[in-house]
Specification:
Helices cover about 35% and strands about 15% of the residues. The longest helix has 19 residues. It is built from ten helices and nine strands. It has a domain of about 190 residues: Aminopeptidase. By secondary structure, the chain is α/β, with parallel strands linked by helices. Helix 6 packs antiparallel against helix 9. The strands form three sheets. The protein has a five-stranded mixed beta sheet. It has a two-stranded antiparallel ribbon with strand order 1-9. The protein has a two-stranded antiparallel sheet with strand order 3-4. The protein binds zinc ion. The site of zinc ion (ZN) has 5 residues, from loops.
């Protein structure tokens, strides 16, 4: 099954890369403020990919035609590729899975192969838990995909969660973390709150809100305006660092009690889906504010809602 996902995702990426060659000049000419701001952050070399992702995500160039939109904002038309009354769709990304098959554009990410401790490798844990969450959701009639490092460009789903585990090199640190990105759908704070609440209750691990890194907040798979291989800004997306593989207690949970860990994540997702029918997630355009100037790190992280 693992191979099947990989093949499908790889070939999709290839099709998009090939189809972009003829149109790149056009998109350069039509660059929008959001993308210009993303380029100015210098986190990714500017190129046709950066601008083109906007059109892949939305099917049309962003418009600010509505006079009520704030100045400088961009309006992304609501997605129509998933029927509003269709089965729900959830993606679990198994962090670091099949990174060796990822495209060269992912740059630094290709060097990030994950942590390991005491013979346990992060990617194996991520993949195992992702598969268990997927099985629990599939039982409820939900369409589930386990995704590798390479996310299909503009990936649209009702929920996306990237699963990772930490390591501190000493064994001292324990706890789990979660993050979402900015300039995306407004529903991600609630998704995070529900997953954090269920995860904390089931695992009894501490939630480490001060350990959240810049890498988590800017996680490439959520950075749709600068990375091609990211989820649509309409896809409620988050990253979950499930615990420290280097810590005995955390590792025991992830390795010896994976069903408890997976069950907590699945319950959080199910609660979110119940609260958020697809008509709510995809029923309206997304109006995003202008990109803020690049902020020094650490920038303030609001405390999570728990519920
Ligand atoms: Zn990781």
């Amino acid at each position: 099954m693992a191979k099947l996902f990989a093949v499908r995702v790889t070939s999709l990426a290839l099709v998009v890369v090939l189809s972009s060659v003829g149109s790149s000049g056009l998109w350069h000419a039509a660059a929008v403020p959001d993308v210009q701001a993303a380029i100015q952050t210098n986190e990714v070399a500017p190129g046709p990919d950066v601008v083109e992702i906007v059109t892949e995500v939305t099917g049309a160039l962003p418009q600010t035609a509505d006079p009520q939109d704030p100045p400088g904002s961009i309006r992304l038309p609501r997605p129509t590729s998933l029927p509003l009354n269709g089965p729900r769709k959830v993606a679990l990304q198994a962090g670091h899975w099949l990174t060796r098959e990822a495209p060269p554009e992912l740059g630094r990410i290709l060097q990030q192969t994950g942590t390991s401790w005491d013979g346990v490798t992060e990617v194996d844990v991520n993949l195992d838990i992702a598969g268990r969450v997927a099985a629990l959701l599939a039982e409820k009639g939900i369409q589930v995909e386990v995704l590798p490092t390479t996310i299909p460009p503009g990936y649209l789903a009702d929920v996306f969660i990237a699963l990772h585990a930490d390591g501190d090199g000493t064994g001292a640190t324990s706890g789990f973390k979660a993050a979402r990105s900015t300039r995306r759908t407004p529903f991600e704070e609630r998704l995070m709150a529900l997953v954090i609440g269920e995860y904390a209750a089931a695992t009894e691990l501490d939630y480490d809100q001060f350990g959240i890194s810049r890498g988590m907040l800017g996680y490439y798979a959520m950075a749709w305006s600068r990375i091609r291989y990211a989820t649509s800004p309409f896809t409620p997306s988050m990253i979950l660092e499930m615990g420290y593989l280097s810590n005995d207690r955390d590792r025991h949970l992830m390795v010896d009690e994976p069903d408890l860990v997976a069950g907590a994540i699945a319950t959080g997702i199910l609660r979110f889906l119940e609260e958020h029918p697809r008509s709510r997630l995809f029923g309206q355009d997304l109006v995003l504010p202008p990109a803020p100037p690049r902020q020094p790190f650490p920038f303030p992280v609001p405390p999570p809602l728990v519920g």
